[in-house]
Design goal:
Number of domains: 2
Number of helices: 12
Structural class: mainly alpha
Largest sheet: 2 strands, antiparallel
Helix content: 40-55%
Distance between the termini: 51 Å
Order of helices and strands: HHHHEEHHHHHHHH
Shape: globular
Number of strands: 2
Length: about 325
């Protein structure tokens, strides 16, 4: 362990450091402007693919190469956020509709009997009560100084039940809160009834939903997505009911391309007329030098450096 002693660099010093490491910077004014907007540290994460030797750029690597990789990643995050939004809305709609009709109850979210009871972690002693937490979240929205218009309308028109119906109350939940509420459903048939819309086993669907929440938060905080290894891995889909990937992709379920494939699969139900593939292709074409192998597309023979499997030939992407 050492004491951190590095001093902050001026933009001019940052540029000098990059040049000393072999990076070609043809327009230093432009480079300084981007360092001012993005920050040296954030941009440095996109320099590693261009350095076979640490702190030494490969021959003919330019500042524009690094910037293009950053811009590719930004465009990819926006594409993923858009897809997750569409999927989230569809999940919300299916939960509301399916459970309201199954229980013939407009306020199923207030029925404690269909949710798991409080659970105490034996190691930490911490108690989790997702049903109670959800009730608290709804209550906070009801008592906000400036509530949603539909909440205000309900409060002025009705005095019972206290909470609005599910098609209002569940709309108040974030995707993370929605995921927790789905997980808290006590009965497997309830979860499966929602998962059926997406043609998935409920266990896989639950796992994928957790991953969507995690990735959505990464994107919302502008974290790197292009070559990330996910801390929350989605379950591998073994018996797909729709077009999917060949088994070679299963070992990379912690990488970005598997996530993109999950989005494509879910969008087939959530937004059948989507242009997700075309938009992804357009981003890759706009930044043709992007090292897409870092996204987790496996090679043909499983050896690094050999040709990648053509992802466009996969049944899912055809």
């Amino acid at each position: 362990m050492r004491t951190f002693k590095k001093k902050p660099f001026l933009y001019s010093q940052q540029i000098d450091t990059l040049k000393k490491r072999g990076l070609i910077i043809e327009d230093e004014v432009k480079a300084e402007r981007y360092l001012n907007e993005i920050s040296y540290y954030r941009l440095s994460a996109y320099t590693f693919p261009f350095q076979k030797v640490k702190d030494t750029f490969d021959d003919n690597t330019s500042f524009q190469d690094v910037l293009n990789l950053y811009l590719f990643d930004r465009a990819l995050r926006l594409l993923v956020l858009d897809a997750i939004e569409r999927i989230e809305i569809a999940i919300r709609a299916q939960m509301i509709y399916t459970l309201a009709h199954k229980y013939n109850d407009s306020h199923w979210q207030d029925n404690a009997a269909i949710f798991n009871p409080p659970n105490t972690n034996p190691r930490t002693g911490q108690t989790f009560d997702i049903f109670a937490d959800t009730q608290d979240i709804i209550d906070k929205h009801l008592n906000q100084k400036h509530p949603e218009v539909f909440v205000k309308h309900y409060k002025t028109q009705y005095n019972s039940p206290k909470n609005p119906p599910s098609w209002m109350s569940v709309e108040l939940l974030t995707i993370g809160e929605l995921s927790r509420l789905f997980t808290a459903l006590k009965f497997n048939p309830d979860r499966q009834a929602v998962a059926n819309f997406f043609k998935l086993p409920h266990i896989v669907f639950t796992s994928w939903l957790h991953t969507l929440v995690y990735v959505r938060n990464l994107c919302a905080h502008h974290s790197r997505l292009w070559n990330r290894e996910f801390a929350i891995k989605p379950d591998v889909l073994q018996n797909p009911r729709m077009a999917w990937l060949q088994p070679a992709f299963n070992t990379n379920n912690h990488r970005t391309f598997y996530l993109l494939s999950i989005l494509k699969y879910l969008l087939a139900s959530a937004n059948p007329g989507n242009h997700f593939k075309q938009k992804l292709e357009a981003i890759i074409q706009k930044y043709p030098n992007t090292p897409i192998q870092f996204m987790g597309i496996p090679s043909i023979d499983g050896i690094n450096g050999s040709p990648l499997i053509n992802w466009k030939d996969e049944a899912l992407w055809r």
